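Thread: "does anyone have the structure for this chain?"

Original post by V.I.:
We have the sequence but no experimental structure in hand. Need at least a predicted one for the grant figures.
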Amino acid sequence: MFKRECHSFGPMVGVRFWPGMGRQAIIWGKRAAILWQKVPMSSPLVKAFFIGRALAEAVYEQAERGLTDALSELGKFDAEQRERLREFTEVVLERARQEETAAYQRQTTTAIVPIDSQPADLQATIDELRAEIAQLRSELKRYRSSSRA
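Reply from O.Q.:
Generated one for you, tokens below.
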């Protein structure tokens, strides 16, 4: 009956005009929110709709760009931290290897013992050390008692 022209502005929003009827319907997706009005095409309401739509698209693009930049920076930061952790781990492992090698070399070094020396009696050495410890304890006790007085 009526000639119908459809102007679509994106996947979810369509604006349909029925020429001759002077009516406008705004449809969002499959749910229709229809505004029936006698509105001429140059009215402030139509202009506000298109300005609002352009504003929403611009804000969306800015937010998308900002989010993309933030995620990119976060990815760079994560990669840098992983690299620093890898380098730190390598340094620690290298130091551990060096200390292990040095400790192994100290263990395997041979001491030069003169042939004419006699091995010390182990029990005698232990007794001497115990006597020295007892003497140090008595000296420490004397020092503490004199500092309190």
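V.I.: this helps a lot. Residues 1-40 form one domain.
O.Q.: and The longest strand covers residues 13-18.
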